[in-house]
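Protocol step 4 of 6: structure prediction from sequence.
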Amino acid sequence: MKPAQGRPSIVFCHGLWADGSCFSKLIVPLQAEGYECIAAQYGLNTTAEDVDLVKATLGRVSSPVILVGHSYGGSVITGAGTDDRVAGLVYICALAPDADETSQTQQSNFPTTDVFSHIEVVDGRIWLRPEGTKYFCGDLSEQEQKLVWATQGVPKPDLFGAKAGGTAWKSKPSWYIVGKKDHTVHPDLERFFAKRMGATTYEFDSSHVPMLSQPERVIDVIRAAAKGVSGAAVAA
């Protein structure tokens, strides 16, 4: 489906313990409004591979594109967003390392042990234990928490130690959603990222997954980003 005239396309980038289905509550309404949407389904093997897959996904939709990254997906859009087809960035409780930083170095400055006390490394992958969903997505119903656990993506242990390969937020307009009850990425780290990149910032009374617990509000932010990007294009 081609986007409505004058509207950017939207590419969604998931975090750890997730896949593209975590954006389903956003994609369906946005498609109904005429936005061309696609979720990049990468393997969480290496950051370089994930960034490359996102760049390949850009070719499946029309330009210009807004990249929407959740959690680790923020590192991915920070690397992939330097592509000329990308017009703007939306970060949802997301990481956004600079060129000399990694996801791990940033989180070590603002540690939160709530979720990371409920993971285990087995068969070369990091798995979220069932009880960890209380800290990861505690503002969802019990049924939805079980679904999040059942559909989790499982990263390789060294994924957080890699650099993103670019710093798109230095050259592209950005919007940032802070989850004030986030127990996965520290809210103060999120505020640090948002301030550093000069993002238009929103604070939600949510867990780490506002796209599932407060999808209407997240859609409003994406609409604002789309309007901002379209307005910049008109002005140019």
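Step 5 (inspection) to follow. The radius of gyration is 16 Å.
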